[in-house]
């Protein structure tokens, strides 16, 4: 491998990095895509190898290339083998573009496809073309806490983790859980979720212009409506029905509206419950949205009552916009939210306590403003991309150097 030239900033060698993730809506895809965008902006050459264009990419960004994985459908295949098509494309892209490493997000099946690609490159027929391709796997959450624990996936998830050249987890909680559930002895680097604080922030003029579309402002004797928000992929683990329950209690106590951003399996159950509780006309079901950075700052409060969050990226994005969260004390959420200061945490399912806290907070402007400021401060001081992305760059260099030493 030739020594890499430095990036324009001179902070890190310019690397050619392949990134694979789920390109549709979901936290791991968001992190992978935002990471690619940030790395490209820092001068690295990024190659997304995915089944479709990741949803936050336009495909026209400088230093970013997109390689679509095409899966051949043959009538015999009841389940077309995407993992194999992905491995083949990974190996091709790595060879054709001389990638320095492959960074895969979400263990299943991406780490396994990457291992196959690495083996294909190592054992090419033409000896001169043989090379070692380092693989880094980033664990995000349900790949470990849910899917990976199913007996049909556990051994192969463990294999993918153990055979990767580097493994990162997005919280200490997830690192510890992975070690314990999969009996992993090797090192797992914790690199937490991040947010671009120049993109996610509250612009008062924009909020003043847009918020009236979602919540009625004060006028005459009428007090302003409060605006709550929830952002997720509406999977059962997100407990969207708890969001509706909390909101219905809040709306019974004070004038309020709710923005629901996202879509997924529990959407229709949420619509039914909203109708049954008589709050459907106070809820904006916005569906999947691309520019959530324009919507989040409009809100006063985020509701994240998840059954599990290994970190809670949605809450972080809201916090960067000055919106604190009412959240459940699960998984790695306490690594993000300082209870009582930058947000509030409750036991899973305690919608009564969540609603009571929301009502009290929304009725206390001074406390709400202080919590909003603390939320922004946490995001900007601890989780901005400017702080976290260099941790990935540094980790890449350590893995590449270690592999070079072990496999000269
Ligand atoms: O279930 C989701 O929220 C999607 C999931 C994923 O892997 O796509 O998100 C996980 O990764 C996010 C980004 O790293 C974390 O912030 C979320 O906490 C995590 N979700 C869960 O653990 C349920």
Roughly what percent helix? 25-40%
Secondary structure category: alpha/beta
CATH topology of the largest domain: Rossmann fold
Number of domains: 2
Beta-strand proportion: 5-15%
Q: State the shape.
A: elongated
What is the chain-wise order of helices and strands? EHEEHEHEHHEHEHEHEHEHEHEEHHH
So what's the oligomer here? single chain
Distance between the termini: 9 Å
Q: Can you walk through the features of this model?
A:
This protein has 408 residues and is α/β, with parallel strands linked by helices. The chain has two domains: 16-194 and 385-406, Glycogen Phosphorylase B (Rossmann fold, 3-Layer(aba) Sandwich), CATH 3.40.50.2000; 204-382, Glycogen Phosphorylase B (Rossmann fold), CATH 3.40.50. It is built from 14 helices and 13 strands. Helix 11 links the parallel strand 11 and strand 12 (325-328). The longest helix has 22 residues, at 385-406. It is elongated and about 80 Å long. The model has no long low-confidence stretch (mean pLDDT 94). Residues 26-28, 31, 106, 140-142, 170, 193, 233, 235, 237, 308-313, 331 line the site of ligand GMT.
Question: Can you lay out the helices and strands and say which pair or pack?
Answer:
Layout: E1 16-20, H1 27-41, E2 45-50, E3 64-68, H2 82-96, E4 101-105, H3 110-122, E5 135-139, H4 142-145, H5 154-163, E6 166-169, H6 172-182, E7 189-190, H7 204-210, E8 226-231, H8 240-253, E9 256-261, H9 267-276, E10 283-287, H10 292-295, E11 301-304, H11 313-320, E12 325-328, E13 343-346, H12 351-362, H13 365-382, H14 385-406
Parallel strand pairs: 1-2, 1-4, 2-3, 4-5, 5-6, 6-7, 8-9, 8-11, 9-10, 11-12, 12-13
Helix pairs in contact: 2-3, 8-9, 8-12, 11-13
Bound molecules: ligand GMT.
């Amino acid at each position: 491998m030739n020594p890499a030239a430095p990036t324009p900033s001179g902070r890190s060698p310019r690397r050619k990095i392949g990134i694979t993730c789920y390109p549709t809506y979901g936290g791991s895809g968001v992190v992978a895509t935002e990471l690619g965008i940030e790395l490209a902006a820092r001068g690295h050459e990024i190659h997304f190898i995915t089944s479709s264009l990741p949803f936050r990419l336009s495909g026209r960004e400088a230093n970013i290339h997109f390689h679509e994985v095409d899966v051949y459908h043959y009538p015999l295949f009841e389940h077309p083998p995407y993992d194999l098509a992905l491995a083949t494309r990974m190996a091709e892209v790595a060879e054709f573009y001389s990638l320095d490493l492959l960074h895969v997000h979400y263990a299943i099946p991406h780490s396994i496809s990457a291992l196959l690609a690495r083996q294909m490159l190592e054992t090419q027929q033409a000896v001169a073309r043989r090379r070692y391709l380092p693989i880094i796997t980033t664990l995000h959450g349900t790949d470990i806490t849910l899917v990976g624990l199913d007996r049909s996936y556990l051994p192969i998830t463990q294999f993918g983790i153990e055979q990767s050249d580097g493994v990162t987890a997005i919280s200490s909680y997830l690192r510890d859980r992975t070690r314990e559930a999969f009996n992993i002895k090797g090192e797992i680097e914790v690199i937490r979720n991040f947010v671009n604080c120049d993109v996610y922030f509250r612009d008062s003029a924009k909020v003043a212009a847009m918020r009236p579309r979602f919540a009625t402002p004060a006028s005459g004797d009428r007090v302003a409506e409060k605006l709550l928000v929830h952002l997720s992929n509406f999977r059962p683990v997100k407990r969207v029905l708890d969001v509706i329950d909390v909101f219905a209690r809040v709306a019974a106590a004070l004038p309020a509206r709710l923005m629901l951003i996202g879509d997924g399996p529990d959407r229709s159950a949420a619509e039914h419950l909203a109708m049954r509780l008589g709050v459907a006309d106070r809820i904006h079901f916005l569906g999947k949205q691309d520019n959530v950075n324009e919507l989040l700052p409009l809100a006063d409060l985020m509701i994240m009552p998840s059954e599990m969050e290994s970190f809670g990226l949605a809450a972080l994005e809201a916090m960067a916009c000055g919106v604190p969260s009412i959240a459940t004390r699960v998984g790695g959420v306490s690594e993000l939210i300082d209870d009582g200061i930058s947000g509030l945490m409750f036991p899973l399912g305690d919608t009564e306590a969540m609603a009571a806290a929301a009502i009290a907070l929304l009725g206390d402007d001074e406390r709400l403003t202080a919590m909003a400021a603390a939320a922004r401060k946490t995001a900007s001081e601890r989780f901005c991309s400017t702080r976290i992305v260099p941790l990935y760059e540094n980790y890449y260099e350590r893995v590449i150097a270690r592999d070079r030493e072990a496999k000269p």
